[in-house]
Amino acid sequence: MRIVLVGPPGAGKGTQAAYLAGNLAIPHISTGDLFRANISEGTPLGVRAKSYMDDGNLVPDEVTIGMAEDRLEQPDTAGGFLLDGFPRNLKQAEALDGFLKGKGIALDAVLDLEVPEDEVVKRIAGRRICRSNSAHVFHVEYQKPATEGVCDTCGGELYQRDDDREDTVRKRLEVYHTETEPIIDYYKSQDLVITIPALGKVDEVTRRAMAALGRGE
Length: 217
Fold this sequence. Notes:
Helices cover 47% and strands 15% of the residues. It is α/β, with parallel strands linked by helices. It has a single domain, classed as P-loop containing nucleotide triphosphate hydrolases (Rossmann fold, 3-Layer(aba) Sandwich), CATH 3.40.50. The strands form two sheets. It has a five-stranded parallel beta sheet with strand order 2-3-1-4-8, with helices on both faces. Helix 2 (31-41) packs across helix 3 and helix 3 runs antiparallel to helix 4 (61-72). The radius of gyration is 18 Å and the shape is globular. Belongs to the adenylate kinase family.
């Protein structure tokens, strides 16, 4: 299957993408991984992306599109793929359609993870990260540490990242509404969008998505 996964920040896209790709036996292709791979390998696109990022500027669409197209040329995508974080705007969606059409293939579905905005803010603004090990993540409501402000695993100090502050989260949501939400209507016109309620446990959301794709138990 060839799938695009969309949803607001805090919807759990990365987690669901990994589970769904595993269940469907297709590669999970995330924008973050594309950037890291191209930059670490020093590809021409990676060099261009790094130059923009080092200057504090957004990476142009054509660079991101080029990275995605290069990745989709790899042999492991022949049986399908799951795109996470790409496309993020109409220009990228149109470029993806053009690329796939040139290959004689098309998307099978666009999964839209639906989460109420207040829940998104609660999920992200409530996160607390360990200063000693950023892999240790807690939440003031959903995963409380035994001692407030102290990591259960290593005893490090827990803190709130600037990106997780409520005002920043709401700004990120504004960007999502402006830039990314329009691609949902774009794909609805192609009858590709499947809306998945993303509240509940991770495995419950995965089961909903798999059932919607006709791959449920």
